[in-house]
Amino acid sequence: MSNHIVITLAESAVQDLEAIREYYQEQEVPEIGDRFVKEIISSVEELAIHPDRGRMVPEFNSPQLRELIHPPCRIVYRRYKEKISVVRVWRSERLMRLP
Questions:
Q1: What domains can be seen in the chain, in order of their start residue?
Q2: 86 near 8, Cβ under 8 Å?
Q3: What is the model's pLDDT at position 92?
Q4: Which residues pair with residue 76 across a beta bridge?
């Protein structure tokens, strides 16, 4: 029997998703924003089955800090033994920095 992985979204990731949706609303194509956010959530949900699917974030070289690339975004998450915490959903060209 496999371990059950819990997935959480940090407030920063929720705000990032809201900003993505708002951007497409401002561009007068809200359906694209809605679809894009749903695709991102779907990718995140797959981490419950394949938690190590994402690559290590190059800026940090830490096995616990990983990312999925969903062009044009980076879905950055922390990998714990039985939990995944999505911390940011950023445009791919942004470099990640420690707070």
A1: 6-91 (3.30.2310.20)
A2: yes
A3: 67
A4: 67, 88
Q: What value does the mean pLDDT take over residues 8-25?
A: 95
The whole-number average pLDDT for the span 8-33 is 95
pTM: 0.85
How many angstroms separate the CA atoms of 87 and 35, rounded? 21
In whole angstroms, what is the distance from residue 32 CA to residue 20 CA? 10
If we measure between CA atoms, which residue out of 63, 18, 12, 59 comes closest to residue 37? 18
11-26 vs 30-46: helix axis angle to the nearest 10?
Answer: 150
**Can you point out the beta strands (E) in 34-96?**
55-56, 65-70, 73-79, 83-91
